[in-house]
Each structure stands twice: as C-alpha cells, then as structure tokens.
C-alpha cells in the first residue's frame, strides 16, 4: 500500500517545519531553545500586564511597593499560567496516546467534569474543608470518571476515530448533568460556572502553590512517556514487550486525573488546551512522545500566556476569564485543524 | 397506560390547590369579599392589565414583591421553589404551593392553582406571554437604572391592587427618611466599591447595577466608573482593588447566599493586596447580607434593611 508514503510527503509539503527538521536534524535543539526564549519573553510581558503600576523604571529604582506587587501578584500569576498550561497540555497528550485517539483530552472524556462534581460534593457536604481535602476528593472523582471512560472504551467493539471522542463527550455530558442538577438544587450554579471557566484573576502568593504538584506530575509523565506510547498500541503488544499494560494504564490514569483535579481546584477548567496543543505538536513534529512532551509543554505554556494576556488587556482594567478567550481561540484553531485533516485524507 | 397517571396527578393537583385555597382563606378572606368584582387597570413593564382588586389567590415569582406583601400584612398563595431567608421563612413550608423555580414557572401547577393574579419580575419576565394566558399577569420589575423611583412606583401598584395605598405611602416615607440620613453620612465617607465574591473570584458592580442602590440612591461616591450592564458585574483582580483603593468595600458573598460557609468572602479577601486598601485599614469592609441583596432585593421591608446595612458601614 502506498498510503503511508503519500501521507508523509503530503505532510512534508504542507509543513515547512517538518521539511526543515528532516533535512537538518540537529537544528531541533535550536528550535527548542528559540521556543523557550519566546515563551520566556511572553512570561516577561505577562509580568508587566496588570492594573497596578509596575513599570521597569519603578522596579529599577527599587520602589518597594512595586516589588511587593511583583512578588505578591505578578510572579504567582505568571507561574500559575505556565504551570497550568504545561500540565494540561501534557495531560491531553498522555490521554491521546493511551487511547490512541487525537480528539481526546481530559475535558472531553469526563475527567474534568468528574473533578468538578467532586469539588461540588465537598462544598455541599463539608463547606469548611481545607483545600487539600477538596483537591483529594476531586482527584478521587476524576480517577473514577476517567476509569469509567476507559472501561466503556475497552468494551466498544470498534474504536473508530470519531466514536471514541463521542463516547467521551457523552460520558462527560452525563456526569456534567449530574453536577448541574446538584448545583441547581443547592443554588450553586454560579459557583459552578466559576469553576468551569478557568480564571487566573484570583491567583496571588499563597493561592497557587498547589500547582507545583502538577509540575512534578508533568515531569513524571515525561519520564514515563515511552511507556504510554507502547501501552497505546494495545495490551497484547505491550505484554509481548515484557511490560505490564495494566500498570502503565493505571499510571496514566492517575497522572491525568491528578493534573485535572489540581488545575480545576486552583484555577478552574482550561478547555481545548489539551486537545489542540498536542495536535499541533504532532502535525509539526510527528508522534514520538518523548520528543513531543517538551514541545507540548512549551506550546501549552505559550498558548495560555497569550490567552491570559489578551484576557487581561482586552477590557482593561477589568478581566475576561482565560477560559473564555481560550474557547474562542481554541475553537477557531481546532476547527482549522479538523478542516486541514479532512483535506489531507481527501 | 397514560390516563390513570393523569387522573392521579390531576386529583393530586386538585387536592393541593384546595389545600392552598383553604390555607390562604384565613388571611385575605375579609378583604377579598369586600371588593369582589372590582378591577383596577395596572400599567407595568410589559403592558397594561386589568387586575382584580384584592385578588384572592396571588402567585408571585419575586421575593421582593413577597417581602413587600409581608410588610403590608398580605400573603402570597404560590411562590417559587427556593431556600427562603429568615424574613420569609414561612414560605419554606411545603404547604405553600410551589410554582416552579424563580426563573422557570411550572405552568401545570400554576394552571391547576387557578390564581387570580400572577406577579413576575426580571427573572421570570420572559414567561409573561404564557402566564398571562393562565391569569392576569403583571411584570413589576424594578428598573435598576433608577431603582428608587421604580421601586416606589411598583410598591404603589401593589398598594392599588391590595387597597392599602396609605400603608404603602407610610412605609415609603419611612424609607425616604432613612435615605436622607444615609445620604448625609455618605457625603463625607469617601469612595466606595461594591464587589461580589464567588468561587474565589471577584466581580465589581458600579452605579446603575443591581447593587447600584448604594451609589445611585444613597450617594456613596464611586472609585471607578464601572459600566456593568444589567445583572452582571465586571471581573476584576486584586490589583484592581489595591489600585482603586476604596475607603469602604461593600461585599456580597455569593457563596454564602447558598447556605454554605458564611466566611467564604472573608477567606477570599484575606490577602496582602486587600489589606493595603483604606477600607481594610479603617475596618470598613462591610459584609452585606447576601440574601437581602442578592435574593430578595427591592421590597418594602428589605429596602429598609439594605439601607440600614449600608448606613451602618458609613
């Protein structure tokens, strides 16, 4: 069959980046460094966006008030954006590899909805619970929801590209409607809305540090990257290579669920990110997970930084939640991706 | 299969409405019989409606109207399903007919109850068409662009309908006195900012908003020209709070309106940036009763309560 050859040449034609990488392989490190510098620049811009007056001259003059603002408000927010962006994108990538489907991410398979249901349950039953406990319960719910998705998926006779995300979205819808029902019953719909739309406006020193947990989880995902690639090829294949398929799947499940739960409890749901970033990376750099993880992390951080900067400036001095900006940008990019994929197959 | 279920349901509904009728009989019977047959023409937000004077069975979706009726010694016979604050606690009783949620009427229950008058406001305003097919329906929404005048007008209409105009005038005069007192205090109280906390995030409300009473009527000056249109405020950061530095901070704790922890807003505002504002330094962070401000709104008793809360913080 000539299909692989065809698709490869088509991809190379459409994507100059792919062609460049093929012809001069060592330059990928250079690209990575350039990308890191770019994200670094975005981070610096992010540090200087805000309602209060924090300008370079004031900082250089050693103005204590300006420096206070930097440490209390600016640095935490930028760090939170980078940490959440990185982690959610990588979680999406892991998930896509585990189920071998490009249109899957924690917010389309019920993981995020389950985490939200978890927070709601704690809020109703134990309103004064400490944040760690809320997060713990959210994680347990996220685990349960994701496991349910994987179990349903395992029972599906055919796993075509569209069926998997449809099953995920349906499951997410069911869990989401249970959540909405209880939120309605306890008059928590508005609070629920705030959880479901990612927003960094409440981030201050002392309010985002939990996100360092997801940094550790993302690193773990990177280290285990090759295993997820193998596990995605199926239980028999994995076992033939002498690895424990169930254990790998369990690891992926725990990583994705914990990342989703921590991000939802600290800043809220960040839609589309885990979907579009891994897709862009795979279009540009192919499917080797170990290599894709740094790129995914970089793109994820950069994308959320851009969205947060837009959200903070578009209605200055007020804010538009990052989740809303991301939905608009994300939906546009995702649609473009879908159309492009169809063109290639045609 | 279907008919028996319907019969049972119908019988149940009939029983329920009978109960409701007997329950309300005690309170409004005397007035109702005296004025039977008379009507009054009420012009409201969605048209003009002929309304019976002293209607026997009154359904309302608005807690502000309910509050006014309580202040006037009246009772509603059908109310929305919600958690009622203490001032309206008697409507938590399952014996009072429940006619849907505050936003979505339960048309079947309303139709079965045969009300003589339905009073709606903003939250249920879009159901006006269907509701007016069931019974005379009036929309007594308070226009938040000119809250006081609008509220007085709506209260006056209640006075006409229930034939208690002198009582309404007395109460409105009492409110005017309170407003004058608060205004005298607010002139020297510096600038104020109204925020709502929900899920760890802040929304700011300005003049002309649902909480605009504070600026528009009581004369508290604003820290910024917040152009929030309608019911929703503007999402803000803590830096916005610090930079605009209000002398008084009025806080509506959305999460405590739902009977969760009342300290939710306190936890959100407990940080270094808020601590650097004049409001925090001078201990002028005023926690508004979220039931009064968010749930009930403009009513003859509740408006006094809202003014008192603002005045106490001035």
From TrEMBL, chain A:
Its annotated compartments are: Cell membrane
| Topology in membrane | Multi-pass membrane protein
Name the UniProt key words of this record, in alphabetical order.
Cell membrane, Membrane, Transmembrane, Transmembrane helix, Transport
Q: Which SUPFAM superfamilies match?
A: ABC transporter involved in vitamin B12 uptake, BtuC
Bilayer-crossing residues are 31-51, 79-99, 111-129, 135-154, 161-184, 210-235, 247-264, 320-339
Report the sequence similarity comment from the record: Belongs to the binding-protein-dependent transport system permease family. FecCD subfamily.
Q: What is this protein called?
A: Iron complex transport system permease protein
Q: Which organism is it from?
A: Paeniglutamicibacter psychrophenolicus
């Amino acid at each position: 069959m000539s299909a692989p050859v065809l698709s490869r040449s088509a991809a190379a034609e459409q994507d100059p980046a792919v062609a460049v990488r093929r012809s001069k392989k060592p330059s990928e490190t250079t690209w990575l460094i350039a990308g890191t510098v770019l994200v670094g620049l975005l981070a610096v811009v992010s540090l200087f966006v805000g309602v209060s007056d924090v300008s370079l001259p004031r900082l250089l003059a050693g103005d204590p008030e300006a420096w206070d603002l930097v440490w209390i408000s600016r640095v935490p927010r930028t760090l939170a954006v980078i940490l959440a962006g990185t982690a959610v994108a990588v979680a999406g990538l892991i998930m896509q590899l585990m189920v071998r489907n490009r249109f899957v991410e924690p917010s389309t398979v019920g993981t995020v909805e389950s985490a939200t249901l978890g927070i709601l349950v704690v809020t109703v039953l134990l309103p004064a619970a400490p944040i760690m406990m809320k997060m713990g319960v959210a994680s347990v719910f996220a685990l349960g929801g994701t496991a349910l998705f994987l179990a349903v998926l395992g029972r599906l006779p055919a796993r075509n590209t569209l069926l998997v995300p449809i099953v995920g979205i349906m499951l997410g819808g069911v869990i989401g409607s249970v959540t909405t029902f209880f939120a309605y019953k306890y008059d928590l719909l508005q609070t629920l809305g705030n959880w479901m739309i990612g927003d960094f406006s409440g981030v201050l020193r002392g309010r985002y540090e939990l996100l360092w947990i997801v940094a550790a989880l993302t690193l773990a995902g990177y280290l285990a990257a090759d295993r997820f690639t193998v596990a995605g090829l199926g239980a028999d294949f994995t076992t033939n290579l002498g690895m424990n398929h169930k254990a790998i799947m369990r690891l992926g499940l725990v990583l994705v669920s914990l990342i989703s739960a921590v991000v939802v409890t600290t800043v809220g749901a960040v839609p589309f990110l885990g979907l579009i970033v891994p897709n862009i990376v795979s279009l540009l750099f192919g499917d080797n997970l170990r290599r894709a993880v740094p790129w995914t992390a970089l793109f994820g951080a950069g994308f959320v930084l851009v969205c947060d900067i837009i959200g903070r400036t578009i209605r200055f001095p007020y804010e538009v939640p990052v989740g809303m900006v991301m939905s608009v940008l994300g939906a546009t990019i995702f649609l473009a991706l879908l159309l492009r994929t169809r063109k290639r197959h045609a | 299969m279907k008919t028996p279920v319907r019969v049972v349901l119908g019988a149940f509904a009939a029983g329920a409405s009978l109960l409701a009728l007997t329950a309300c009989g005690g309170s409004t019977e005397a007035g109702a019989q005296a004025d039977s047959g008379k009507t009054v023409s009420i012009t409201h937000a969605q048209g003009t409606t002929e309304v019976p004077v002293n209607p026997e069975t009154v359904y309302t979706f608005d807690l502000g109207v309910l509050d006014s009726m309580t202040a006037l010694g009246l009772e509603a016979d059908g109310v929305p399903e919600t958690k009622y604050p203490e001032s309206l606690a008697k409507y938590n009783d399952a014996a009072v007919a429940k006619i849907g949620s505050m936003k979505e009427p339960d048309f079947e229950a309303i139709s079965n109850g045969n009300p003589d008058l339905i009073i709606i406001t903003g939250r249920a305003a879009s159901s006006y068409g269907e509701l007016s097919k069931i019974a005379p329906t009036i929309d007594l929404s308070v226009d938040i662009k000119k809250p006081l005048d609008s509220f007085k007008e709506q209260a006056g209409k209640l006075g006409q309908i229930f034939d208690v105009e002198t009582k309404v005038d007395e109460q409105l005069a009492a409110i005017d006195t309170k407003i004058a007192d608060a205004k005298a205090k607010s002139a020297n109280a510096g600038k104020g900012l109204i925020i709502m906390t929900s899920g760890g995030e802040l929304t700011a409300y300005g003049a002309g908003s649902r909480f605009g009473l504070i600026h528009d009527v009581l004369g508290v000056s604003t820290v910024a020209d917040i152009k929030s249109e309608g019911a929703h405020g503007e999402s803000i950061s803590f830096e916005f709070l610090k930079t605009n530095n209000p002398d008084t901070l009025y806080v509506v704790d959305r999460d405590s309106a739902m009977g969760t922890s009342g300290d939710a807003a306190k936890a959100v505002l407990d940080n270094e940036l808020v601590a650097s504002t004049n409001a925090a330094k001078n201990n002028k962070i005023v926690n508004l009763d979220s039931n009064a401000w968010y749930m009930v709104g403009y009513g003859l008793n509740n408006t006094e309560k809202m003014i008192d809360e603002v005045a106490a913080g001035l």
